[in-house]
Amino acid sequence: MMKETRKIVIQEIGKSFRECTAIVSETLGPPGPDEVLIRNHFAGVNGVYDQMMCLDRVEHTKVIPPADTGVEAVGVIETRGADVAEFAPGDTVATMNVGTAYRDWQVCKSADVISIPAATPEVLALIPSGVSALVALEQVAGMTTGETVCVTAACGGLGNVLSQLAVNAGNHVIGVCGSDEKAAWLESIGVARVIQYRREDAAAILAGEYCDKLDLVMDSVGGPLFDALVENLAPLGRLVVCGYTSDRVPTEKVRQERIYSKLYWKAASIRGYMNYRFAAHAADARERLLAMLAAGEIKPLVDGRQFVGLEAIGDAVEHLLNGENIGKVVVDLR
Asked: What is the pTM of this model?
């Protein structure tokens, strides 16, 4: 059985996502013996990664046009290959491979498919962003309880789960965000101090209220905010770099004392988290997060703006890059 599908491909390098991508048609053959055919229902948007792909600036992926786009999706299995026993038509599943999400249908190896309870935006918001949050906190940050924890981009797809997990663990959480609506949501989940950086001086607040008191920082913003966070790390404090959205295309020359002079006397540290480096922990984290979701212990935040169809993905990417989202940006492909 042949299946006609549409997908978004990168056609050239060096421009914005909208300018260098196009929707094209493709004919999919029947799944091979160890493959399944999936109808994608929702795709998760990773605007920074999408933009970096278009610039060919993703360190672990060489982009050669035409290149398929999109990473995470949830959907329903339509058919399966002869050797696939663990899945059946009608099963709800998730996939997380580059090039499998921004398309209506996909054929993939059954080994790359994850069973999920439902193909919903909430589940998509946990896989993989929530998984990254939990693994980063446990395997890199070493978060405990009773700590002062700062989360930047605290209402983003990653940040909203980081914030919830840190609050649930009994920590004093500082959330950095960019709007009153985001601030209200953070306060509603128990974030102790919200810094609205568009109208407050984040560096001054940190220096005045949290000088040498930041036990743990989860930063995905970078830039001058990163400098202020380093400056206010507590003795034995840890700063985990989860990204650097403000500096994805470097434009400034940083000239200041070397970082070790700020870390040594505090015995503080800066660590990096990149999800594929911790793939061995993903399955366990997914299982526990889905259990938390079922028990109502965590409520992944899904952005309220509706994006429908492949034609809306360019808008969704720009919505995220402009910092307008509150939670995970999801596109409805049904």
From this structure: 0.94
